[in-house]
């Protein structure tokens, strides 16, 4: 009897702990408490509910600058569902959620498109699309949602720990000494590093074998393949690393820890990091969702979020001072130099790359 | 022992809950691993066990879990013994202190360890500044860092389990042994230890299973070394390969059962009447 109980207990614990692995999947109602009491709701009948699925960073900013004005204007109650890309996409896959609008990085949005999880959008309902950079208008095809922010992946470094200046992707192979952090292959930036390694290996065409040979050479200099940017920021502050590829939006955190820190767009080109907004298939509020996307692209929201350093703007009417532009990917010239990965190509190859990365390199 | 049949009905809600939310999903997960393209096959498992890379991950995981369990046993036993003999007021204070690690999130705990174990961290700064070593040690991002994090996380489990057993220990037995001429060590070895073995084993099982399945701590402290749970997460969440993830999950369940069996056998040898 005793033995049986122990076994059962152990099994229960296994499943319990396994479940603890993703402890932030629970949907949170981000808007409810603040806005339930607005008088508008009562005068114009019950508000429509719009479910928005997003990451949950800068939640307060979104609540105040993005959701609240939209709720007021359209008599809507926005319910927020929070989690990382993979978790939220899986929920939509299972069909167990009633999400209307979903924020996803381009890589995951491409997966959703391949599986037919998105509505095609009606661009005439989103006039602000005409005001955004070309690169952001239809990153995954005309039928699907735009990118509401385009950031870039470059190299940040601590000048005190690096020989000379870093100016290109190739410098990662020569100027760092056992103090480099690289993104994990499964992180958003992982495929970009494979592409950068292919560039450094020579040739203009993508060369998988060349890329992996190069990455293997670099492995002994890598302290950690990071999956969370917070890990990078922490390692940088602790001088555990001298630098490595990171998104520009996080540079302000690095500077807070190391005031001399530098961010460079490598001469071969920094990579475009795009986050998209889309309407989920089966949404009852498709038009409202499209209006919401239009609002997210408006000059007002875009400028506010750029100034708060929440997201880099795509709306070309946004004007920032030099100071406001620090840590923000901003300006037509900057955007025009970005390298953009083909997400269908990445999605086709990612399992092979992940496997090779695991086996040949370490990750 | 006779039990009223109606009393058994009281078990029903709990059993139904377990069946619906644990037995059924686990059975489905296990069943799904034997089917590929509509055919019954062991291919999923053969693929993993023939794969040197997966075997290496598995061995790292087992090594980390076994060492963590042993260290927890060695550190936890004297601590629990001391707490069990302390006065009531001191006892509740010590107990609260030892449970404390469970109250903070694994993420916060792991980040604290990064600050302590890093190249410029507390330990290395101290060792370098005092001249004990010339170059900082590589502790962070190694399996050692994983084990340190896991011991910190799971030590409370073994202390609590052992404490439960030790508090019910009849100290008259020890006194009787002493009065009959046994040395303190002999009394401990022949009486106290065998009687507390069940607590040690259950605590050990909890720690082992916990370390085997831990995700956050190895992911944050482990550097380039992978463990099975991070590998499972990669397959399920980023690659969307639920078949592979299920196979790995079943392998983990089987390992758990085998280890629980072995530890029970060991407990029976140490304490046949337990």
UniProtKB/TrEMBL annotation, chain A:
Spell out the Pfam families in the cross-references: SBP_bac_8
Write down the SUPFAM superfamilies for this protein, in alphabetical order.
Periplasmic binding protein-like II
Which CDD domains does this UniProt record tie to the protein? Answer: PBP2_polyamine_RpCGA009
Q: Which InterPro entries match?
A: SBP, Sperm_putr-bd
Q: Which residues form the signal peptide?
A: 1-26
Keywords in alphabetical order: Signal
* Highest taxon above the source species: Bacteria
Sorted alphabetically, which Gene3D superfamilies does this protein's record hold? Periplasmic binding protein-like II
- Give the transmembrane ranges: none
Protein name (record): Extracellular solute-binding protein
Q: Which organism is it from?
A: Paenibacillus phytohabitans
**Lineage per the UniProt record:** Bacteria, Bacillati, Bacillota, Bacilli, Bacillales
């Amino acid at each position: 009897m005793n033995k049986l109980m122990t076994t059962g207990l152990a099994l229960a614990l296994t499943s319990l702990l396994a479940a603890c692995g993703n402890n932030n999947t629970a949907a949170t109602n981000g808007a409810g408490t603040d806005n339930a009491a607005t008088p508008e709701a009562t005068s114009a009948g019950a508000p429509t509910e719009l479910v928005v699925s997003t990451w949950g960073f800068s939640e307060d900013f979104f609540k105040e600058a993005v959701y609240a004005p939209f709720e007021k204007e359209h008599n809507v109650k926005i319910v927020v569902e929070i989690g990382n890309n993979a978790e939220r996409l899986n929920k939509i896959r299972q069909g167990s959620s009633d999400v209307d609008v979903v924020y996803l990085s381009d890589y995951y949005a491409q997966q959703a498109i391949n599986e037919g999880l998105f509505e095609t959008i009606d661009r005439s309902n989103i006039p602000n699309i005409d005001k955004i950079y070309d690169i952001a208008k239809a990153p995954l095809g005309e039928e699907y949602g735009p990118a509401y922010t385009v950031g870039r992946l470059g190299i940040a470094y601590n000048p005190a720990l690096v020989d000379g200046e870093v100016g290109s992707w190739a410098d990662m192979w020569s100027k760092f000494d056992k103090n480099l952090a690289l993104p994990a292959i499964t992180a958003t930036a992982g495929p970009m590093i494979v592409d950068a390694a292919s560039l450094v290996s020579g040739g203009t065409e993508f060369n998988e074998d060349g890329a992996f040979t190069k990455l293997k050479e670099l492995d002994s200099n890598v302290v950690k393949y990071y999956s969370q940017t917070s890990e990078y920021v922490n390692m940088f502050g602790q001088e555990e690393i001298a630098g490595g590829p990171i998104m520009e939006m996080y540079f302000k955190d690095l500077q807070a820890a190391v005031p001399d820190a530098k961010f460079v767009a490598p001469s071969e080109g920094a990579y475009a990091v795009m986050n998209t907004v889309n309407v989920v298939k089966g949404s009852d509020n498709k038009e409202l969702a499209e209006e919401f996307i239009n609002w997210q692209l408006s000059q007002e929201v875009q400028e506010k979020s750029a100034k708060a350093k929440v997201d880099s703007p795509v709306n070309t009417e946004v004007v920032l001072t030099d100071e406001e532009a620090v840590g923000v990917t901003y300006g037509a010239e900057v955007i025009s130099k970005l390298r953009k990965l083909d997400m269908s190509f990445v999605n086709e190859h990612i399992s092979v790359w992940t496997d090779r990365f695991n086996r040949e390199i370490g990750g | 022992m006779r039990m009223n049949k109606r009393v058994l009905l009281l078990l029903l809600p709990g059993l139904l809950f377990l069946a619906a939310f644990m037995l059924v999903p686990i059975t489905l997960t296990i069943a799904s691993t034997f089917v590929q393209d509509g055919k019954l096959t062991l291919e999923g498992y053969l693929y993993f066990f023939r794969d040197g890379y997966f075997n290496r991950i598995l061995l790292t995981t087992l090594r980390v879990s076994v060492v963590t369990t042993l260290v927890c046993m060695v550190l936890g036993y004297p601590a629990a013994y001391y707490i069990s003999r302390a006065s009531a007021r001191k006892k509740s204070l010590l107990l609260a202190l030892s449970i404390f690690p469970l109250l903070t999130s694994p993420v916060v705990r792991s980040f604290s360890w990064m600050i302590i174990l890093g190249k410029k961290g507390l330990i290395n700064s101290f060792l370098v500044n005092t001249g004990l070593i010339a170059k900082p040690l590589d502790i962070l991002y190694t399996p050692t860092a994983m084990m340190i994090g896991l011991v910190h996380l799971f030590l409370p489990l073994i202390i609590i389990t052992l404490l439960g057993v030790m508090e019910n220990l009849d100290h008259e037995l020890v006194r009787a042994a002493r009065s009959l001429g046994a040395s303190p060590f002999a009394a401990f070895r022949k009486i106290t230890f065998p009687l507390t073995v069940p607590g040690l084993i259950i605590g050990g099982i909890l720690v082992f299973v916990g370390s085997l399945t831990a995700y956050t701590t190895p992911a944050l402290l482990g550097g380039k070394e992978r463990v099975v749970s991070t590998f499972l997460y990669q397959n399920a969440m980023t690659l969307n390969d639920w078949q592979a993830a299920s196979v790995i999950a079943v392998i983990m369940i089987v390992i758990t059962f085998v280890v629980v069996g072995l530890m029970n056998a060991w407990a029976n040898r140490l304490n046949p009447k337990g």
